[in-house]
Amino acid sequence: MKYIDPHVHMVSRTTDDYQRMALAGCIAITEPAFWAGFDRSSAQGFFDYYRQLTEYEPRRAALFGIQHFTWLCINPKEADDPGFAREVIALIPDFLKCDNVLGIGEIGLNKNTKNEKIILEEQIALAEKYNQLVLVHTPHLEDKRKGTRLIMDALSASKIDPGRILIDHVEEHTVAEVLDRGFWAGMTLYPDTKMTPQRATDVIEMYGSERIWMNSAGDWGCSDPLAVPKARIEMSRRGHHMSLIDKVTLDNPRTFLSQSEKFVLKAE
Ligand SMILES: [Zn+2]
């Protein structure tokens, strides 16, 4: 079996995790830029992080036969100071030329503040200018529906085709609207909280398998880099056909990501 984990923060995982993912059938991952667990004190901190994502992690992944792709941005949690955020955004165009960069992400909102929204719009404009794919983070907990709508409105105001935008961290109460508006939807699987492999399987059963994928998040918090293969097992246990399981964990990610000419799988 083969699968793609299209949203996993490997900079916060051990090399053993790469090995376990490879053993479970992972052939490619995409790693969005995110909050490091602490606020960086200068734009230089982001410069080093972007180098890590474009130079070091691809080599670490390749040791296990996993292709590594990435997305660049300033994440919403550190985007509440527009002056600082603009200094960071100015670094991004040069890195967009790197072989493994697929687009801008994960952009979005955290606390739905006015400044976060301004920086979100500026990063959407950056994606539009450089014709990049977009990966979107939606806020967790009670603000999710409101935040998801604010983000979709900002995206719809741009000229970017919604088919080139994936909105991640959808849950039962946001997935239908995301799909209805023409975007792709991502389900981030967590071991206990938020979207579990069981709930993700429920969503596929309720809303179908078009324009939807699953990923593990695999960050420095409680998370499981094997969440996608575990969801495959859950779907199989419920009697779903292998073609459907492959569709949501391999074919759909490949279809969306292949809109970037840089996303070419070596294993096929
Ligand atoms: Zn993330």
Describe the protein.
With 268 residues, the chain is of the alpha/beta class. The protein has one domain: TIM Barrel (Alpha-Beta Barrel). Helix content is 43%, strand content 15%. The chain contains 10 helices and 8 strands. It has helices at 15-23, 43-62, 82-89, 92-95, 114-129, 144-156, 175-180, 197-207, 227-237, 242-257, and strands at 3-5, 26-32, 67-72, 101-108, 133-137, 165-167, 184-188, 212-215. An 8-stranded parallel beta sheet has the order 1-2-3-4-5-6-7-8. Helix 3 packs parallel to helix 5 (114-129), helix 5 (114-129) runs parallel beside helix 6 and helix 9 runs antiparallel to helix 10. The protein is globular. 43% of the residues are buried. Residues 7, 9, 32, 34, 106, 217 line the site of zinc ion.
